[in-house]
Specification:
Length: about 230
């Protein structure tokens, strides 16, 4: 783990070990200092647990945010006083509220996760893919272009417009009507997104593009490596 305020500060934790962070004080030292008057003297702690970790928020008023820089917008909120919140991200950035905004106080790098081996020797009908997408198809490039801002910056709220997608995919021979067709095809046939009832007044194009981004990133249908497919 290293501090966002001092990248040279690296603390290594074995499973079961814990460090504290905050503004600190002579009578209340901390392991990782975040020098800002809006940060509590004892702001919280990080506890290492095998291949994940837990974050405790000791503040009475501030909510902390843990972002996954690799996960297309994934984050965990830790409310004031919450103890031992499990964080599943291998790499995570802890954001603390400070005077004038937020700061990436420190980064946590957990051990690589363990995955189960697929069962062998099982007979019967093969399991179908819930979302069958062809990475070589133009509709998939449209989906990647939609997701690109969020993949590059998880905190981005940008939803690319059709003209912006056309510009990003310049040279592929797409037209505005073709991009609209691919978006509608993705929404109706591939990801089958549905308009939320509370968004009934929102324009079709707006909610469709937003819903496609949300589903594609939430279920890892579009990932960082797919950005290389863009021209």
């Amino acid at each position: 783990m290293h501090s966002g305020r001092d990248a040279s500060t690296i603390l290594r934790l074995a499973p079961g070990e814990e460090i504290t962070f905050g503004r600190g004080a002579p009578e209340q030292p901390v392991d990782l200092r975040v020098d800002d008057p809006a940060v509590s003297r004892m702001a919280g702690s990080v506890h290492a647990v095998e291949d994940y970790w837990r974050l405790s928020n000791r503040s009475r008023t501030a909510t902390y945010v843990v972002e996954n820089p690799e996960g297309g917008g994934e984050f965990v909120k830790v409310p004031p006083g919450r103890v031992g919140t499990p964080v599943p991200f291998e790499i995570a950035q802890v954001l603390l509220p400070v005077e004038g905004g937020w700061t990436k106080a420190f980064t946590v790098m957990a051990p690589e996760h363990t995955f189960a081996v697929s069962a062998l020797g099982v007979t019967g009908e093969p399991t179908r893919l819930a979302h069958s997408l062809d990475p070589t198809a133009k509709y998939f490039l449209v989906l990647v272009a939609l997701c690109e801002p969020r993949l590059r910056d998880p905190s981005s709220a940008v939803i690319p417009s059709v003209p912006q997608i056309l510009s990003r995919l310049d040279g592929l021979g797409l037209t505005r009507s073709a991009v609209n067709f691919h978006i509608d095809y993705l929404a109706r046939e591939k990801l089958r997104v549905k308009q939320p009832s509370h968004d009934a007044s929102q324009g079709k194009a707006d909610w469709q593009r937003g819903a496609l981004i949300s589903v594609a990133l939430r279920f890892d249908l579009v990932r960082d490596e797919h950005l290389a497919l863009l021209p």
